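Hi U.,

Before I forget, here's the chain from the pilot set. I'm dumping it here mostly so it's searchable later in email.
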Amino acid sequence: MAASITANAPCGAAMQQRVLNEGSCLGANFMACYPWRPPCGPSLRAVKNCSRQFFPLRYAYFYLFSLSNMTPAIDLLKKAKAVHQVHSYQHDPKSASYGLEAAEKLNLPPAKVFKTLLAASEKGELLVAVVPVAGSLDLKALAHAAGVKKVEMADPQAAQRSTGYLLGGISPLGQKKRLRTFIDNSARLHESIFVSAGRRGLEVQLSAAILAAHTQGQFADIGRE
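Structure:
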């Protein structure tokens, strides 16, 4: 059973209890957690002690929040200082289509949201295809673009092992193994597009050119409605 903390308890302990109870950091006015003693208020020493304990807590929570949204895809873009923006939404595990769910929950035109699919050639080479969520992948067109005889959709387990991502959250960026990547030409029609950021419920917005640059991707007509 957690011990209760009275109004006269040390500031750091009171703050930690409030953080646990409220689920968030306190505001910048850290003096609010220390009992006032009119007419002078808290001593300078009390304020210093309070600030020493408050700011580490504040930045620890900020660090944990940032860490929770970090994926290999986002890490790659940050290290490259590439222009991008991350968007998150509450993923529904029962959703029939992860891509269309992202478009709906982020209030985006489906033509601007792209899904990442993996296909395998007749020789077993895995290929990455990035196509609009509203359409499907043209396997014959992908085979032609890749210069192979034929392709078929890759085994889901093989896709997860190769990319390091789970199905529904496979990003074309930051994959564990570098695979040849093909991006549907329609991506170049938009100022920016959205692709998975490496986790279900997380999308990254960036230009088609930046996506191609950081995946060494080639543009081709591989999507169909």
